[in-house]
Amino acid sequence: MKNLMTFAFVFMAAFAVAQNNDSDVDIVGNDNEVDVMQSGDSNTSIADIVSDGNIVSVDQMGLFNGSYVGAFLSSDDNEVSVDQNGGANGSAVLLTRRSDENTVSVAQNGAFNLSGVRVHARSDENTVSVSQDGLFNASGVRVARSSDNNEIDVDQAGGANASGILVRRGSDGNLNEALQVGNLNLGLQRMTRSDDNYVSQYQFGNRNINASDMWRSDNNLVWADSYGNRNITLTGYYMSDDNDSWAQQYGNRNFNSLSLYDSDSNSITQNQIGNRNESVIDLAGSDSNIIAQSQGLLAYGFLPIFDSYNTSSFIGVYGSNENSVFQDAWASRRTSQVTALVNSNENDIESYSDFSKDTDNTVALFGSDNNYVLSWQDSSLNSSALTVVAGSDNNSVATYQWGDEESMSNTVLLNSDGNDVLTDQAGVSEYSGILVAGSDANFVTVIQYGEENASGLIIAGGSDMNDVYVEQSGLENDARAWILGDSDMNSVTVLQSGDYNKSYTAPLANSDSNTTKHNQTGDDNLALTVIAPGSDKNRVRIRQAGEFSAAVTLQSGDKNRAVIVQRGMSDTSFAIIAQAGTSNEGEIDQQGPVNFAAIAQAGTDNIASSTQEGMFNLAVTLQAGTGNDASSEQMGTANASFIAQSGMSNEADASQNGTANLSVIAQSGMMNTTSVSQMGQWHSSSVNIAGNGNAVTVSQMN
């Protein structure tokens, strides 16, 4: 009885017996049949079989071929057939211990092919078939320990393909299939402690990488399809059971990644059609989740024909259970969808973009539970929806932007619970922005019909039990509502029908010695300053150049200073500074179209500045306490910055240059320092500090 020869040893043996063919057969038992045929140079064949009823057939033609077949102990009714035709091919097959009724067939045609099959321990009724045709192919299959009823099929045709399948431990009833046609393909599968699993990999095209990984997995169904060029598909399950996942990619330069950690009863579907698509899905501690993500649309019947181009999607759900997340970009073009949930449970989040172009859906929930968030952009063109909910529970946020064109909706809720926010927009170039901080039991509804309507809502401070309703119908209506300070039990209702209407809600009384300066050049700009009752010696300076821009300052307290500068080409930009307390300083400087910046200050001697240059940038700064300093600087497109400070003498600095970068900084305590610098695209940074004297520095670039 001889030991199993590794792949390397097969090749070494093939070279070692130059010009001499070798065949060594040892069979102990009854009714065994061995057929070995060798033609060519330096071929080697060794067969070891113990027991009865085994059939082994080895046929080798060519140069430097090597084959080893071994079936040991009480192995019976095994049939192994190895056919090699070409150059330096190597094949090794081992069935050990109680392996019976196994069928292994290996056929290799070409040059430099490698195939190894090992089924051992108490493995029975296994069927393994490996066929390789082409150059530089390699296949390794291993089913170990008490594995039974496994069927594995590997087919490779083309150039330098590699496929590895591993099923071990108490694995039974597994069916693994891998088919690779093309060039430079790599397919890997691994399952441990796995039973009743079905894993299949299909790859057609060039430079594809497909990998599937499951650990303590049972009753899983995973298959991945890749057609096209430069596709990469990665799927990982850990501690996973009852999962159903498949990923399909058609097109060019696609990237698809799925990771589930302590996950059970999950169903994930990923579809990408087109070019330059990217999709990432991460779940940790997740159970009973259903996630479906689809990008692009083929031409089906009457539906429009678009190719999905430069689309990207990210779904991150962590400490999550019973979540349902749907993302669909359909006929997308440069569409980006981002969904993030942290410490989230029982959430249902849906994002659609339909017949989209340049649309962007972003949803972020942090300590969130029982939330329902929907962003729906129908026939969209340049539409964007942003929803950020932090420390949130029992929230329902929905955004519709029907037959929209260049519509935008922003929703930010911080420390929010029991909120219901709805934004419904239909028409062309409509805008709605909602910012709620320290808010609970709020009901906000904004409905806009027509063209170029705008609505902005800010509820700040210890705002609770507020009810705001805004409805607009017509052209270029503008409605804004502000509730600040210790605002509670307030109700604001705005109903407008017609064109070019504007509505402002803000109290002002008992205020002395305040200074306000507005300087505007351009068309259709809005500048609004609200100073709350009993506020003295505040200073405000607003300077705007461009079109359809808005600048708002809100002050409550004494000796506050607010400066907003929106320079040339700052079209359709929005900037707001809210101050409550004494001697706070806020400054916003923006240049470029469709930028959003918000600063909210509560306390004494706080300093905050936001500088943005580019387009579709978002900056939000929240300060509460004394002597806090926050600075946000953004250059590029679709960047987002969130800074929240509470306490004393904290410092935060966020600098971003590029496209679609995200920075979140949260500080509470005293004398904390945070610096974030990001250059490039698609960077994400989140810093949360609670305590005193902490320092964090983050630097990212690509």
In short:
This protein is mostly beta strands. The chain is built from one helix and 58 strands.
Spatial extent as radius of gyration:
32 Å
Which shape, going by the Cα principal axes? elongated
Strand content: over 45%
Q: Which structural category fits the helices and strands?
A: mainly beta
Poorly predicted ranges (pLDDT <50, ≥5 residues)? 1-19, 298-305, 507-512
The major sheet is characterized as:
21 strands, parallel
**Number of strand elements:** 58
Explain the overall architecture:
With 702 residues, this protein is mainly beta. It has 1 helix and 58 strands. The chain has a 21-stranded parallel β-sheet, with helices on one face. The model is unreliable at 1-19, 298-305 and 507-512 (pLDDT under 50).
List keywords for this structure.
single chain, 702 residues, mainly beta, 21-stranded parallel β-sheet, 20-stranded parallel β-sheet, 58 strands, elongated, disordered N terminus
Set down the secondary structure blueprint.
Blueprint: H1 7-16, E1 22-28, E2 33-41, E3 44-50, E4 55-63, E5 66-71, E6 79-86, E7 90-95, E8 103-111, E9 114-119, E10 127-135, E11 138-143, E12 151-158, E13 162-168, E14 175-183, E15 186-195, E16 198-206, E17 209-218, E18 221-229, E19 232-241, E20 244-252, E21 255-264, E22 267-275, E23 278-283, E24 290-295, E25 312-317, E26 324-328, E27 336-345, E28 348-352, E29 360-369, E30 372-377, E31 384-390, E32 396-401, E33 408-414, E34 420-428, E35 431-437, E36 443-451, E37 454-459, E38 467-475, E39 478-483, E40 491-497, E41 502-505, E42 515-523, E43 526-531, E44 539-547, E45 550-558, E46 561-566, E47 574-582, E48 585-591, E49 596-604, E50 607-615, E51 618-626, E52 629-637, E53 640-648, E54 651-659, E55 662-670, E56 673-681, E57 684-692, E58 695-701
Parallel strand pairs: 1-3, 2-4, 3-5, 4-6, 5-7, 6-8, 7-9, 8-10, 9-11, 10-12, 11-13, 12-14, 13-15, 14-16, 15-17, 16-18, 17-19, 18-20, 19-21, 20-22, 21-23, 22-24, 23-25, 24-26, 25-27, 26-28, 27-29, 28-30, 29-31, 30-32, 31-33, 32-34, 33-35, 34-36, 35-37, 36-38, 37-39, 38-40, 39-41, 42-44, ...
